[in-house]
Amino acid sequence: MQTYSNMTFTEIVKEHTNIINCEFIDCIFENCKFLDCIFIGCTFSGCKFIDSSITNMQTKETHMLFNIFSECTLVGIQWTNLQSGSISFPIQKLNKCYLKYNNFENMNFKKFDFIQSSILESVFENCNLAESNFKNCELKNTEFSGCDLRKSDFRKATGYNINLATNRIKGARFSYPEVINLLNPFEIVIEK
Q1: Distance between CA atoms of residues 28 and 179, nearest Å
Q2: Strand order through the sheet with 2-5
Q3: I need a labelling partner for 65 at 20 to 30 A (CA). Which of 108, 140, 176, 178 fits?
Q4: What is the number of H-type helices and E-type strands within the chain?
C-alpha cells in the first residue's frame, strides 16, 4: 500500500481511473477532480477537500474517516459504503458544499452542521441527525426516513421531504412557509 501523509495535492484531475491501495493521512486536496473513479483498498483519514469534485465514486474496501469538505461538489456517493465500522465518521465537516444523489444510511450525524450546503435529491435513512443544523440549506427532493431529527434546526431550509410518521422530530425547528411541506404526505388541502 502506498501511503501519503501531510501532503497537498493541487489541481489533480482523475477521470475513469482506478485508484488502488492508497492511504491518505492528513492530506489536502485543493481544486481536484475525481470523476467516475473506482477506489479499491483506499483510506482517507483526516483529509481536507477544498473546492474539489467527487462524482459517481465507486468503492471496494475503501474507507473515509474524519474528512473535511469545503465548497466541494459531491455527486452520486454512497457514504455508508465508506464507513470502516458502525461508529466511523467519514465526514467531519461540510462547509458550503453541493451534494446531489448522495445516500446516507445508518450514519451518525448528531449535532452535525450542514449549514448553507445544498443537498439535492439525496436520502437520509435511519440516521441520527438529532440536534443537527440544516439552517439555510437547500434540500430539494431530499428524503428523511426513519431518522432521529429531534431538536434539529431546519429554519430557512427549503425543499425537504420529511415524513412525520417515520421520523422523530420532537423539538425540531422549522420556519414558515416551508414547514407546510410536512403536511404533504397527508394530502390535505390548506387554504389562505
Answers
A1: 39
A2: 2-5, 22-25, 43-45, 63-65
A3: 140
A4: 0, 22
Exposed/middle/buried for residue 89 (C-beta within 10 Å: 0-12, 13-18, 19+): middle
Tens-digit pLDDT profile for the chain (192 aa)?
A: 899 999 999 999 999 999 999 999 999 999 999 999 999 999 999 999 999 999 999 999 999 999 999 999 999 999 988 876 655 688 999 999 999 999 999 999 999 999 889 999 999 999 999 999 999 999 999 999 999 999 999 999 999 989 888 999 999 999 988 888 787 777 777 777
Distances in Å between the Cα of 33 and the Cα atoms of 19, 39, 51, 112, 146 are 13, 14, 9, 25, 33
* Cell 440544516, residue located: 134
Q: Write out the H or E segment, with its range, that includes residue 33.
A: strand 33-35
DSSP state of 168: B
CA dist 31 to 5, 76, 141, 162, 177, Å?
19, 19, 28, 34, 37
Q: Which residue has the cell 483526516?
A: 46
- Please check whether residue 58 is in contact with residue 78, taking contact to mean a CB–CB distance below 8 angstroms: no
**Burial call 7-24: b when 16+ CB within 10 Å, e when fewer:** eebeeeeeeeeebeebbb
Which single residue is written with the C-alpha cell 431538536? 151
